[in-house]
Write a structure and sequence with these properties.
3 domains
Length: 245
């Protein structure tokens, strides 16, 4: 059974084989039961997570796994997961040969429990993404981001100076960067994601040509090319130039 197999496929297959129009709710329930038979329940999957991450550590020595529990349930004799962080050893080692730039972001996990996935990545010399660290958390909040950044600093960055941390404008994340590990003092800087900068720029200036120039400016690696495009923006619109300057 393919993970992409959806309710519409159930309805269509039943229609093709029997001519019967199965109700949506019945198709949903049958698909749910089938997935649980093949893949297990959400509960069983979460219960297997410690063993899974333990196996990764066993066969990838040096891989980091950190847990933060909400508490202990005496009735079940088990801990309740709050956050879990992991970073693969080859990625930790590979980061030592990358530029001092880390991008962080969060995304939804479409599961029964609505967890969030926090991610940190770098770029290698071939402009390819190097995943650095991951964390599954209950919510994308200031405490969860602060904990993630603490683990990232401790296990991946390891005192490396001159770091540039790139993020979106999520309030909890920005506060965690300011209050958390020593990312943005004399040891490093915090910058915003170019996509969000361009989006905010376009909302203010409302000019497609200038938006493209804004993207080009943020994509340049050489100062002389950066300055040349900024001059083009200045010729088009002084206010747009002042917004970016």
């Amino acid at each position: 059974m393919q993970p992409s197999y959806g309710i519409k496929h159930v309805i269509q297959n039943v229609k093709d084989q029997t001519g019967y129009d199965v109700p949506y709710q019945k198709a949903w329930y049958s698909l749910k039961m089938t997935r649980e038979i093949v893949y297990g329940t959400w509960e069983s999957s979460v219960q297997k997570l410690p063993a899974y991450l333990g196996a990764i550590q066993k066969y990838n020595p040096g891989t980091i796994v950190e847990w933060k529990h909400k508490g202990f349930q005496a009735s079940t004799g088990k801990y309740v997961m709050g956050y879990v962080f992991w970073a693969f050893k080859p990625c930790i080692d590979g980061f030592q040969f990358c530029r001092n730039i880390i991008s962080v972001d969060g995304t939804h996990l479409y599961t029964k429990y609505k967890y969030k996935l926090l991610i940190a990545v770098a770029m290698d010399g071939n402009q390819q993404v190097l995943p650095l660290a991951f964390a599954v958390v209950d919510e994308e909040t200031y405490p969860s981001w602060k904990w993630f950044l603490q683990q990232l600093s401790r296990h991946v960055i390891r005192g490396r100076r001159g770091m540039c941390l790139i993020s979106d404008r999520h309030g909890g994340l920005i506060k965690a960067i300011r209050d958390g590990p020593n990312f943005v003092s004399s040891h490093g800087v915090h910058r915003y994601c170019l996509r969000h900068v361009c989006s905010n720029f376009n909302s203010t200036i409302k000019n497609v040509v200038l938006k493209d120039l804004c993207w080009q400016t943020g994509s340049e690696y050489q100062l002389r090319k950066f300055n040349r495009i900024m001059e083009q923006i200045k010729k088009h619109d002084v206010k747009a130039f002042a917004y970016l300057d």
